Amino acid sequence: MNVLIVKTSSLGDVVHTLPALTDAKNAIPDISFDWVVEEDFAEIPEWHKAVKNVIPVAWRRWRKNLIKALVSGELKSFLKTLRQKKYDLIIDAQGLIKSAIITKIARGTSYGYDKNSAREPQAAFLYKNKIAVAKDQHAIARIRQLFAAALKYEMPNTDPNYGINTQLFPPPNNNEKYMVFFHGTSREEKCWHEQKWIDLAQFATANGFIVYLPWGNNIELARAKRIAQNNNQAKVLPKLSLAAIVALLQSAKGAVAVDTGLGHVAAALGVPTISLYGSTDPELIGAIGANQIHMTDFEQVEAADVWQTIKNCQLIGA
Are residues 129 and 116 in the same domain? Predict the structure, then answer.
């Protein structure tokens, strides 16, 4: 059975889809998946052994200059690839109008959320088969239920298994005792106060940890430099690919993250992680995996609170 998944973005949302593939593969051993995903996240589906082909889409880039996308032939090439084969099923795991249009254009019997379940209710009108999935539950559970209903197997009553092939990411060959701080996020209101990161780095390094600070843009780079400025055991990393960050996490003793896709990657790998949330409801879209702790209302959370939580839970051997 060959199934097309449409789940284009964002980083965390794409990671949230992986457990449903594991469920499906366990229930239907001969199943394989192709996956339509934003070009920036195209490597993530390849982490799962059940994925056969990845079809990158550049909607985020194309919408800034649709004429260029048409003239360059990029859009035409994408549509040709999308329609190249007929699928047994197509599952839109996103529930947006843009993903529903992709689902409609592809060749095969389409499944998606019904109008009361989709993030954009109008998307449901473009699916042949509409599935009701309650919204008041975690995104991972919703996607697992969607796949189970579309593929007609009983969803297992087990913790999510992301099915990531960790052999693709050899860890660093060193014996360093380190933590990773994911301080960057896509929206300003999700950022934790910079001085609190500085204080937390001091707690970590005073307890024998090296703190690694990744970054994804110039704003995050500047912040990372300020966090590390007066702490010689806090290290600003060079700009890393997603694969390099996964490899780094493989040997990390733990991580601290704001509401960012990289926090979900850490959770998927089972890295002990403290996730800091402001307005986000972690019951719906929080990091899920082994050894995960959510701290909410993060404006009231101090660095000392985070470190004490780490110590109390013996999360990372602090």
Answer: yes
